[in-house]
Amino acid sequence: MSRNAKINTLLLVLVAALAVFPLVLGLGDHKEEPFAGADAEAETAITEIAPDYEPWFAPLYEPPSGEIESALFALQAAIGAGVLAYYFGLRKGRRQGEARAAQAAGAQEADAGSASDRTTA
Fold it and tell me: How far apart are CA 36 and CA 29, in angstroms?
């Protein structure tokens, strides 16, 4: 097994552990919505500290249900992942293209050098 394969396997195991451990350990069992997110936790903490607090801004769009909100969040994440994948793929393709162009230029110079050696001899 190559070094990269070992690293990738280790990273995959760590990601799986991060996903499974909170469920196995029962984190959030005492809450009504255990995995609601940081925004809901912050809102709860603010209302406990300062019950008369008024937010500065209101959301531009309030989805009718939590499922639609989750779907929009997943769509946003997918679009972001697609943009990043496109960018890194473009960079890799450009690097490969430059390497092939340099290799072709080197091969042409070698051919031209051997042709000029034949004509002078």
Answer: 12
Please state, in angstroms and rounded to a whole number, the distance separating the CA atoms of residues 56 and 5. Answer: 49
Element (H, E) at 117: helix 66-120
Please tell me the distance from the alpha carbon of residue 90 to that of residue 88, in angstroms, as a whole number.
Answer: 5
* Predicted structure pTM score: 0.52
What is the distance between the alpha carbons of residues 85 and 99, in angstroms, rounded to a whole number?
21
Tens of pLDDT, residues 78-120: 999 999 999 999 999 999 999 999 998 888 887 776 666 566 5
Please write down the long-range contacts of 89-92, taking CB distance under 8 Å and 24 or more positions apart.
Answer: none
Please list, in sequence order, all residues whose beta carbon lies within 8 angstroms of the beta carbon of residue 47, skipping any fewer than 6 positions away: 53
**DSSP secondary structure letters along 26-83:** TTTTTSSSTT--HHHHHHHHHHHH-TT---S---S---SSHHHHHHHHHHHHHHHHHH
Residue 36: pLDDT over 70: no
Q: Is the pLDDT of residue 26 over 70?
A: yes
